[in-house]
Structures are given as structure tokens and as C-alpha cells.
């Protein structure tokens, strides 16, 4: 820019003289120099613009996130199944111990809090691995609502039942023989007569439907999905046990009933804890879907 101003000043100085005193060759030289300087300025501006555009392109390229690595077979199949096995094992283990070693003065409050808090913790820990089902009705409901592939349903159910047996076995190893036998190994022994079956089945259907709806709405449904789902499920379990514990024992989970029944060989009215929860889970899936 300084050169351009210099050339303009020179031209103005020349025009102050008589036209006859100015050499034509001088005019041509001055205009040529001015033209070259203007071209030089245009080229410099173009170079600066190109450099700016190149820099912006490079910054945009660097800001792009790398493509996510596809999950391998272990991460897609074996890892989720292992999470279901371990999660169900520890949930049943903690739940059984709370029943076997229950302090009589605490009543239903102790097992209610233990089961609810245990499921909340396990759901929060393993939700990103397997979805934290730990319960056959949850798995069936999630599958029917499009949250699980069909080829994973049977492996999930098998791992949950095996986990239930392992959890009940750990509870048997931990507790005293006297308390274990008295509590039938934490198997569901609330039902003692045929007159109780109707209310127990209905209670299991209704309460399992409620907790399964909480799972589906809080974790699967895109419109109502919430990060508070572990807390919500845990609170629902606590509420159900406090409300229906004296009616059916509030199983809500066939894996929770199956493990203790295997370890203690207590099968009285065991079918109630399959029919009720499975039916409740299917009803919840239909309502949410």
C-alpha cells in the first residue's frame, strides 16, 4: 500500500507541471509501476484469502471425531450375557441374605430396602453393558418394545436363571444353617393354602406390570427415557415389597424365585412366581408399545 500512495503522489506532482514539460516515457513508466503494484496487492490479498480458507478446512478436518469402532463378538454377545449373569447373581445373593438374616423387628422394611437398593446399584453399574435386565419379564418386555435383538433373548434368560442359582448358593454358604432352614433358603413360602393363590397371582401380575412399565418407559421408550431409571426402578421395587409382601412375598422376578427353590428344594406354589411376573411383564410391554 505504501508503494501505491508513492506512485499517486508522483502522478499528482507531475500534473502540476505543464503537460509539455513531462516526458511521455515517464508517464508510461509511472503507470506501469502503479499497475504492477496493484497486481501485487491483489495477489497478496488472494494468497491471504486462500491461506485462511485452507486453515479453516484443516481445523474443520481436525475437529471431526474418528469413526466409532464396531463392537466385536465378545462385546456384542458374551459381555452382555456375563453382565446379566453377574448382576442377577449378586442381586439374588443380597436379597436372599436380607431375608434369611432378617431382624424380626424390622419386618418387611429390611428386605424391601435391600432389594430396592441392590437392583438400583446393579442397574446403574451395568446398564451400558447389557441393559441391566436381571429379570425374565424385563427381558421379554424390552424385546417386545424393540430394545433387544431376538437372538439375545434366550441367552439372557439362561444367564438370569443360572445367576439366580449362583446367588442363592452364595447366600447358603454365608448364612447359618438354622436361619437358612427357618427361612426356607429365602424361597417364597408365603402361600400356605389354595385360598391365597388368587390374590397372590393377581398381585404378582399387577406389581410386575408396574415395575416393568417403569423399566420400559424409563430406559427403552425414546420419548420418556430418563437417566434416573435406576433410582426409579429401585423405588418401585421397595414400594411393591412394602405393599404386597404379606400377600405373595412380592417376587416380581422368576430368577429370584428359581434360585432359592433349587438350593432349598422348596417348590410349593412355585408356579405362581412364574405365571404372575411373566404375565405382568407381557401386559406392560403391550401397554407401552
Automatic annotation (TrEMBL):
Source organism phylogeny: Eukaryota, Metazoa, Chordata, Craniata, Vertebrata
Molecular function via GO: water channel activity
Matches recorded under Pfam families: MIP (PF00230)
Subcellular localization, as worded in the UniProt entry: Membrane
The keyword Cell inner membrane is assigned to this record: no
InterPro entries assigned: Aquaporin-like, Aquaporin_8, Aquaporin_transptr, MIP
Entry GO CC: plasma membrane
Main location: membrane
Topology in membrane: Multi-pass membrane protein
Keywords attached to this entry: Membrane, Transmembrane, Transmembrane helix, Transport
Protein name: Aquaporin 8a, tandem duplicate 2
Segments traversing the membrane: 77-100, 112-134, 196-220, 271-288
Record family assignment: Belongs to the MIP/aquaporin (TC 1.A.8) family.
